[in-house]
Amino acid sequence: MTSAARASRPMVLAGGAVLLLALVLVTLMLVRPSSSAPAAVSTAAPAETSADVGFARDMAVHHQQAVEMSFIVRDRTSDVAVRRLAYDIINTQANQRGMMLGWLEVWGRAKSSPGAPMAWMGHTVTPRGDGALMPGMATDAELDALRAAKGRDAEVRFLKLMTAHHRAGAEMAQAAATAAGTAEIRNLASGMVLGQQSEIALMADMLKERGATA
């Protein structure tokens, strides 16, 4: 088993558990009696080429790497602030990822697409062969360097990588908040923008404390 596979195992387990919970919650909302409040999930499935489906697929992949990096740094430093940030990212983004995969399941859409990422945004993403599938994502070499680092070095590497990750993620979420046709995607994407911008500001302060910049 490769080091990448070992590192991502906790992330996969966490994501699977959250996906199962999301599917249960979605099912309960869909079978809610008609006399109750409107269901949180739209009954009409968005089109295969819609921003809703494209965003859900792409952001699920983007989030997956953020969770992976957070698990890595959590075990490479004893710094309380960095470990707390990593824990928050793991929980928040694993939960959001589970929601998006759950909606794809309810909509009857595949969780992955053979097409290029971010096509729904009108972007052309050409694979570079370095492991970074979308803007902001870390390369395989950067992930390996993070795994090999310890202490302050690991903290700075993580904060820089996650800042770039969040900036690209917030841009993608802003596009979905504008273009999506379903309220669930628009609301989730809008919340992502605010949350990730807040964490970008926090990480800038944390980098400054460590004598570094993004």
**Which whole number gives the mean pLDDT?**
85
How much of the polypeptide forms β-strand, as a percent range?
under 5%
Radius of gyration, rounded?
18 Å
Q: Biggest β-sheet: count, sense, barrel?
A: none
What class would the helix/strand composition place it in?
mainly alpha
| Count of individual beta strands | 0
Uncertain stretches: 1-15, 17-42
User: Residue share in helices?
Assistant: 55-70%
Report the principal-axis shape.
globular
- What order do the helices and strands follow? HHHHHH
Quaternary organisation:
single chain
Distance between the termini: 33 Å
DSSP helix count? 6
Could you characterize the architecture of this molecule?
Helices cover 68% and strands 0% of the residues. It is built from six helices and no strands. Helix 1 (3-30) packs across helix 2 and helix 5 runs antiparallel to helix 6. The two termini are 33 Å apart.
SSE topology:
Elements: H1 3-30, H2 51-74, H3 80-107, H4 140-148, H5 151-179, H6 183-209
Helix pairs in contact: 1-2, 1-3, 2-3, 2-5, 4-5, 5-6
What's the short version?
By secondary structure, the chain is mainly α. The protein contains six helices and no strands. Helix 2 runs antiparallel to helix 3 and helix 5 (151-179) packs antiparallel against helix 6 (183-209).
List keywords for this structure.
mainly alpha; 6 helices; disordered N terminus; 214 residues; 0% strand
